[in-house]
Every structure is written in C-alpha cells, then in structure tokens.
Amino acid sequence: MSQNKWYQLTSEEVLQSQQVNAQQGLPWEEAWKRQAEIGRNELSEGHRVSPITLLLNQFKDFMVLVLLGATLISGLLGEYLDAITIVVIIVMNAVLGFTQEFRAERSLRALKELSAPNANVWREGAVHQIPARDLVPGDIILLESGDRVPADVRFLETNGVYIEESALTGESVAVGKVTSAIPLDEVPLGDQRNLGFMGTMVSRGTAKAVVVRIGMNTEMGKIADLIQNTESMETPLQHRLEQLGKILIIVAIALTILVVVAGIMHGQPPYAMFLAGVSLAVAAIPEGLPAIVTIALALGVQRMIKRKAIVRKLPSVETLGCASVICSDKTGTLTQNKMTVTHLWVGGDVMEVTGDGYTPVGSIQLGGQNADVAKHVSLNKLLQVSVLCNNATLYEEKQESKRKKGKEDNAVSVWGIKGDPTEGALVVLSAKSGITQQSLSETYKRIAEFPFDSDRKRMSVLVSSENGRMACTKGAPDVLLQHCSYILWEGKVIPFTPTLKQKVIAANEGMAKSALRVLGIAYKEIKSSDRYEDHEDVEHSLIFVGLTGMIDPPRKEVRDAISKCRKAGIKTVMITGDHQTTAEAIAKQLGMIPANGVSMSGQQIAQLSDDELDAKVNDTYVYARVSPEHKLRIVKALQRNGHVVAMTGDGVNDAPAIKAADIGIAMGITGTDVSKEASSLILSDDNFSTIVAAIEEGRGIYENIRKFIRYLLASNVGEIMTMFIAMMAGLPLPLVPIQILWVNLVTDGLPAMALGVDQAEKDLMQHKPRSAKENIFARRLGWKIISRGLLIGVCTLGAFWLVLRVNPTDAETLLKAQSVAFATLVMAQLIHVFDCRSSRSIFHRNPLQNRYLVFAVLSSLVLMLAVMYVEALQPIFKTVPLGWKDWILVLIAAGIPTFLMGLGSVLSPKRSKSSRSTGYKSSKPSFR
Predict the structure, then answer these.
(1) How does it sit in the membrane (predicted)?
(2) 236-304+694-905: CATH architecture
(3) Per-residue confidence at 498, pLDDT binned at 50, 70, 90?
C-alpha cells in the first residue's frame, strides 16, 4: 500500500494491491484494523501556537524593548504625554503583528474545510454513508455529481464523470476521468486521469473508485505539509528597521554620553548636564518612527484598495516596491478565464471571429468581410449543430450602476455561462450571428443524448423537426474524422475523400500549433427506419462540417502592464497547470517571452537538481504542467538567485508557493480560502495589471519611508551636533532640556507624517527594482543625513554664538542666544522637510504640492511662536521674544543647510542625474 504511481496499474492490480473485492468492499473489522494502523483520513494542522503566546511574542522585538525604555525615561522626566504616545505605539504594533500571525495559522484550517464531510462506501456488500475521516485505503466508494472527492482514489468505473480540479492543478476546464492504466513513468498531476484527488469536486457523471491514499499522504495532504514547513519571509522593511533601530540607539547613547562628559569637564553643573543628556537621548532616538511607518503603510493600503488591491499584511506593501520577479498564474489573471472561439475552418474557408468574453457581440470574418451566415450553407449548419449539441446556456444579468456626472441609474448587462466553458464558447459564437438556443427550440426538439465520454472523446444529440430526425455530433477532430464518410463542401454533401481529409487534418494541426483548443462538428440525417438506441447507431457515416478553434484570450490591459514591468526592471513569469503549447502561445501574445527566453514543463523540472534549476530560472519565462512542489521549487530557486519574488495564485495548489514567496498574492474572485489565508495581498479584480499598480504604490511608500527617515535623522543629527560642538568648545548650553524636548515634539510629529503621504516622483517606475539587500542609507541617503544634520547643527550654533558674543557673561544675553538657537533649529528643520521630498533638491519639486506638509509646517511654526510670544509659556520654556533683526539672522542661518546643498545640486546636474539613474540599482541582470 506504499505504491506511489497508482496511475500505472490496471484496476485489477490496484484491487489486488489493496486486497479488496470491488463488489463487496472491505469487511468492517478489516477497515477498523487498517484505521488503527494508518490513522484517520484527516489533514494535520501541525503544532498550533496559542493566541496568548502569539500576543506575547510581539513584545520580544528589539525596537519594542527600546521603546519601553524610552517610556520609562519620559515618565521620569515628567513627559507623560510622550510616555502615553509610546505605549499606544507599542500596543498598536503588537495588535497588528498578532492579527497577521493569527491569520496565517488559519490557512491550514481553511484547507481542512475542503475535505468531504461524508462518503458513500461499500462495506461487506452494502452501501453505507460514513464520515469521510473514517475512510481507509482499500475502501470502495461511489461518487456522483456535486460530491467532493473524500480521498485520493483510483477509478474502477466511470460514467461520463468530470472532475473540477482547478484548485489543485490550476487547469480551469473540468477533467474527464478514465479507468485504463497510464503506462508512463512520469505523468503530471493534471494528466493522471484515472485518479481522483481529495478536495476536488465532481461536476458531472458518476463513478466507482477505490481509495489509495488518505490524510496527509494525499496530494492535498502534501500541500498541507508544505504550508506547515514553509517559513514566511521577513520583509526587507522589517529587517532594515530593526537594523536601523539598533544603530540609532548605540550612536545616540554614545554621543549623549560624550556631550554630558564634555559639559561636565568644561565646568557645567553635573545635574543640569545629566538632564540635558537624557533629554537629548530621548530626542535623538526616533521613538515615533514605528508609528509613522505604520501610518504611512496604512494610508498606502487605503490607496491600494481603491486600485483593487487588498493588503492583509502591512509590511508586504513595502516589499512590493523591490519585487524583481512576478510569478503569475495564467487562467483568470493573465487571461479572461472565458473560453472564446477565435477561428473557424468551414468548407475550406478560414474565418476569424471577433469579440471577447461571453458578450454575444462580434462577427465572423471571411476575407476581411462579414460572412453571410444565411448564404454560407456550411457555416450556417456548423452554428446550428454547435447550439443543438450543447448543454451550456448563455444568460444576461442586469446590474445597477450610477453615472458619476448625471447620477442616473444605469442598467449594465453582464453576460455569463452556465455549464461547461467549452460548450459555452460555442453558444456565444452562434449567438453573435443570431442563432440562439431560443430561436432553434421552436424548430428542433431533443429526443436523445449520448454524453461526452473520455474514451469516445465526442458527444452526440438526436433532435427531431418537421423534416425528420438529425444527429448532431462534436468532438476531438482526430477521433471524429474516423466516423465521417461525407463532408459538407460548398453547400453540398460529397464523399469525404482522402484529399479532403488531409485538408481538415492540416487545418486542425495549424490551429493546434496556435494553442487553440479544436473541436470538430458533424451531423447526419436519421432515417425513420434507422436504429438509434446507442451511440454506435448514431455516430457512423457522419457528415463533417468544420472545425472551431477556441482559447482563453489574454486580458487586453495585461500586455501594457507587462511592458511597464519590463521598463521597471521587473521580470514576469507564467506558472500554470495548463499545457505547455497553450502557455507559450499566451505568453508570446502578451510579449512576456524575450528572444532568448525559454519555457519548461513540470516533467523537466522534476528531472533537475536544485543547482541545475538555479542555473536555468533567469532565462525561463513559462512553466507549464507544474505541481505544487514545482511551484515551491521555482520560487525558492528565484530567491536563491537574489530575486524578490511576488507569487500569484488562486488554488490550493498555489498556497505553499504563495506563503514562501517574499509577497504572496491571491485572487479575490476565484481564489480559494486557503490561498487567501496564505497570502499577503488579495486582488479584488483578479487582474495582473492590479499587481503592477500595487508595485508602483509599494515603491512610492518605501520612498516616503526613506523621506521621513532622512528628515527625522537629519533633524536629530542637527540637535546632537548643536549640543556636542558647544560642549566640546566649552560654550554654555545652547538649548535647555525643555527646549530640546519641544523641538522634538513640534518637528518630529506632523511634518514627518505628512512626508509619509507625499506624492511619488514622476519617474518612479522608470528604474530597476532596488536590491532586497540594499541598506536603508543606500543611494547617498546616509551622506544627505549627515551633511544636512551637520550643517543644521553648525548654523544653529553659529547663530547662538553671534548673539552670545555681545555679552557672554550676561544671563539675559544667554537667554536670548538660546531663544535664537531654538528658533534657528526649528526653522532649519521645517525648511529641510521640503528638501526631503525630492531625491535631488528642494528646487526640483513644487514645495506647495503636498498640502498636508504645508499645513503641518504651519502648525509647527505656530507651536514654536507660541512658546516664544505667549508670556505664560516663556518662563516654562526659557524663551524671550525676538526682534526683526533676530529673525533675519534666524532665517539666514536656518536656510543655509537646505539652499546651499540644493544650489550645489542645480549647478552639477550631470552628477545629480547619474545619482538618480542608479536609484533602483539591482544586482541582477536586466530583463529585455
């Protein structure tokens, strides 16, 4: 019972291996014995972490511990507002982290819900309904339309059974099942047509099967195991912020100690220097950084929802910005998931069909002109047979929508198909020419049907009319041709000669090479004396009419989205369960495969070692007929090559790869609960172009995070440099502790938040993705922080010294000098915030474009003026009012750091341009 390749065995060999009689089933005692040995037919959830443990784990982060320390210090200094703010930040971060991890735990529970609750099983010669968890290998089960397959089974008998396996294999069309053995060594999951898999759905027909695998040994169980053993990737933002926090704390504490020691050595009172040092430490450590990051991400999430992307994990928004590869499913994401007839071959004529999707709008073109269906006898007959030999129905729904301008209610028609997508495509084709089921129902009445069978590969319907009876048949062309003796050619029925058959075969091969799914159409008149009790009576001496070629067409907007990705240095890869020829054709239509690009099948992947796969992934753009294990291997191989991978999917089979990817993306419409729970992002419209929009948002959010990090740290460096240089030079304290804390409050709050919602620069999607290993200070950000911070400190101290030198020993002069230093420091930071909006300088962007920033700066300015000009606040903050000459000094000193560096950028545009062009430098090769 350890056999893995059950598809290779005949039904008799499987029954013998399982030691069971197909007519009797297992004895109850034997079933209980096997259950005791093997276990129940259940999916394991693995080790479960309690919610309390998940919550407590949120407080182990290094930055959280630092914030707790800052809370204690703020409390000791009497800064209770700061302390409360920090506590709120900690709690908010903990709740967000807990929510994300708790959702991840639910993905396995969602997988378990796909298991069938009950099963009809033969035990001791009788049919019993038992809980599916009690099934054991060797049980004989019965399946019918609407049943969920309760375990992995080998089919013994099938009666027109079709199973929907898209959640497992990714193939959108239901698979017809057979009972014969498949004598091949390696067969992809989607081609194992004599097996049924746990969690898949019987769409039609009935079957008898023997259970061969249960629980975690099933294909669904393998996916559950992959989900359990796949670790979620830490996002680059999480990693870099943790590194940044550690660096800032060490540097801030070291410099603060130096300032305190230097002040004491130059005769300053120890107690005063201690308070100043602690105040400087609190100001230097950007405890608001996590909150601002969270707010920036949350606001970005709101913008992404408007663009049809729903974010489940906040840090994943930033990860999108450095995605270098998008691995996308084909069906429904790159394509419309609506089978559409695009070509016809009728009586030697090749015709093209216009129109997309299920909307019956379009035409049949012959030689660039609309074909006259009424006069073209062969075409008319093909359309009639396509509708009569069909069980699908076309329906129209009216959906209400509101016009934005007139606000009038408008009914919008939405067309859909009930039934098999292939049959639906034929119904839509005929409806485009006015031939519908309703119009034919008055003339023709169905009197018999011989359903499509996997062995026969064809379907026939017998209809009657006033003129007699007619057989309508459709099926695989290679099989159908063997049953045709005549052909409808130029409006006449003539013998089907070898020459004419060769023309049909050539046309069929031409369509197949274009990745079209081809169906042959035939019919014949039934004489009153002819028997029609079974399909053999009907399906012989048929009259061949023509061929229909259909495909799931690409979404119109996807080609432009892929082109945009290419310009942004992002590689797009198709990973699908569909056939390789079809996948390649769609990829070429979308411009996805460059001249040197190749495709690979799941069978080829299985034969490669990890090292061999690593060597091939950079040149491979299409992966077809892949299993869940293959998808996971592809994602990991790309990651080992240094890529940041975004993985999309909708099925259960996609969940392990979605979880392993740097950012997992699930489909909102067609996606299973399992794929959604494993994902970081959900597309509410299942559209590839939405991923590109999300990447653009992700890049913008990360750049905004860098903007306020640049602003916060440059401001903090300016404060530290002001105090450090003054102490080393033996000057009095340029700022008292309360002033340091107030500067921190008015400059680090609203302006920093406003930068978090800043508009993206125009050329954001014109650069390669940044490397996932990129340091937070890369692209000269570290230099900008240090240089601007140093200049802010020097200019602030310069203004302080110019006022102090008038009378260095006078207390009133010192008070005025400190007020000037306070005003200069605040103004320098408020001017500098506009410089941070551009990667080049303040002169390269309109400073009034971000109205939130303008409001924030004005608010901070009012707060600063309040402590200087409100008499009640002056004693508290040790300030005095300044005259107009003092303000000239303040504004000149405050403007030097920003305008001096900006002027340098304007005067050397080549250097600035070069610097910008490498903005998203990647260690990976460029993709054409």
Answers:
(1) Multi-pass membrane protein
(2) Up-down Bundle (1.20)
(3) very high
